[in-house]
Structures are given as structure tokens and as C-alpha cells.
Write a structure and sequence with these properties.
10 helices
Length: 267
């Protein structure tokens, strides 16, 4: 029997960078809870953004945030994997060599950038992030950082993979989080490892877990669940890694699967 359901957010539950969630999901999460099934959101997003998205049920779910670097509920942080400051500053120097890319640093509750760029306004207004403009990171950054995100308006993966990933990929987990984003976290801080930590915390097995995803940073989660679903609009690599393929996001594929599960439970 399924006891834990974990879902990616952007590209799986909502179109990238929006809050356009299928409102039926709130009722679905409440009904799942009545059957003893825990729901968790897993995203490259920060907790503040995710809590706003799930506002009607924010106290009822768990959160895997910053691409797996932080595991928490609405009140308590269970795990935060911090990038060492000297190495972080070295990577920042290298990212600044990448053409037309921007940097976002993510702490427990706040994200940081150096100036009011296109990325800043998009994160603040569309993702509804708690984000601050610091100026020079080296001079002004004080917070612990769990994730660094590299942003490019349409080609982040190709630009980062040209030489940055070969240089840093053996020391950090570098994964695509959509065409505009490459996320960098410590080894062992991906969504899959955080899901396994959540399973251990709850006493729930792989066989009792269902996962939904669409992008490369979701594959670790899919591997940690017996019932793994790639959304129909997912990348081919994700479909290959998943046990099932759900209808696409445009048809609210995850909602369809969960409503069917609830129908079976409520017969």
C-alpha cells in the first residue's frame, strides 16, 4: 500500500515559474491524509515559494527544497546540506565567466543575487521567492548556502556543460532543473537522497512510495520509489527511468493518477 507520495513542482504540477496549480490538488492532499498517506513537494524552489503554492495545505505536507539540499516540514528543518564558503566563492568566480548567465544563492529561507536583473524580478514576481539583492557576494553574503543556481534565459544546460560541469562535476551535483536553470548542490544532497531520508524519518519503504517528476533532477527520486511516474511531457531520459508515464502536465496528469488512486481506496 502506498503511504508516501512525492511530487516535483515545476514541469510536473505547474508550468515552469508559475503558481498555476490544479486547485483540485488541495482536496486530493487532504483526502490522501485521511487515508494515512503523506504528501511531500520536492523542488529546486525554496520553502517560502513552495509554502505559498500549497497554502491551503502547507501545514499538512513535507518539503524537499533547493533540489534536495534541505528537508523540512512547515516548522522544522530536518536536514540542510551547506556548501563550504571558500569553495562556493571559487565557483562564483567561474560562473561569472559564463556568457549571459546570472547567479542565485539559496539559504534556508532566503535567496540572494547581486543586482536587480531579469532573474531577480522573475523569481520575486512569478516564483514568489523571498529574494534579496546583496551587491557583491564576497563582501556582503553572510547566510549559509545550500544551493547555487545558474540562470540563462534559454540555454543554461548547454552553456554550463561546455566547461563548468567538467571542471566541477566531480565535486558537486550539477543538474538541469529546466532549460533556464542548472542547480549545484553538495554530493549526496539531491532529491533522491532527501527522499530516502524522509522515508527513514517516517518509517516508510521504497515499496510504499510513489513519485512524480519530469526532469533530470528528478531521476534520483524516481529510483527511490516503487511506483515512479514521469509526466507525459517529461524528458525522454526521465520517461526511461520511470515505471509509468502519466498524462502530460497540460492535462493535469498527476491529478488524474492520484484521483484514480483515491477512487480505489474509497471503494
Amino acid at each position: 500500500m502506498i503511504k508516501l507520495i512525492v511530487s516535483d513542482i515545476d514541469g510536473t504540477l505547474v508550468p515552469d515559474g508559475t503558481a498555476k496549480i490544479d486547485k483540485r490538488m488541495y482536496d486530493v492532499i487532504k483526502r490522501l491524509k485521511e487515508h494515512g498517506i503523506v504528501f511531500a513537494g520536492a523542488s529546486g524552489r525554496q520553502f517560502v515559494s513552495m509554502a505559498k503554492l500549497f497554502s491551503p495545505v502547507k501545514e499538512d505536507i513535507y518539503y524537499i527544497t533547493e533540489n534536495g539540499a534541505i528537508l523540512r516540514d512547515a516548522k522544522k528543518v530536518y536536514k540542510m546540506n551547506v556548501i563550504e564558503r571558500p569553495i562556493l566563492m571559487e565557483m562564483i568566480k567561474d560562473v561569472k565567466k559564463l556568457k549571459d548567465c546570472d547567479i542565485m544563492l539559496c539559504g534556508k529561507d532566503t535567496a540572494y543575487c547581486e543586482d536587480k536583473s531579469e532573474m531577480f524580478y522573475w523569481m520575486r514576481d512569478s516564483y514568489r521567492y523571498n529574494i534579496e539583492v546583496l551587491g557583491d557576494f564576497k563582501t556582503h553574503l553572510q547566510d549559509d548556502i545550500a544551493k547555487m543556481s545558474i540562470y540563462h534565459k534559454d540555454n543554461a544546460e548547454a552553456i554550463v556543460d561546455e566547461w563548468f560541469t567538467p571542471k566541477w562535476g566531480d565535486r558537486f551535483k550539477i543538474a538541469s532543473a529546466g532549460i533556464m536553470w542548472m542547480d549545484i548542490v553538495n554530493p549526496g544532497a539531491d532529491k533522491g537522497s532527501s527522499l530516502r531520508a524522509l522515508q527513514e524519518h517516517l518509517g516508510i519503504t521504497r515499496e510504499e512510495t510513489m513519485v512524480f517528476g519530469d526532469n533530470l533532477n528528478d531521476i534520483g527520486m524516481l529510483e527511490a520509489a516503487e511506483e515512479s511516474y514521469a509526466i507525459g511531457s517529461a524528458r525522454d531520459e526521465v520517461k526511461a527511468a520511470a515505471k509509468h508515464v502519466a498524462p502530460p502536465l497540460s492535462e493535469n496528469g498527476e491529478t488524474q493518477v492520484l484521483l484514480k488512486l483515491l477512487e480505489e481506496l474509497e471503494r
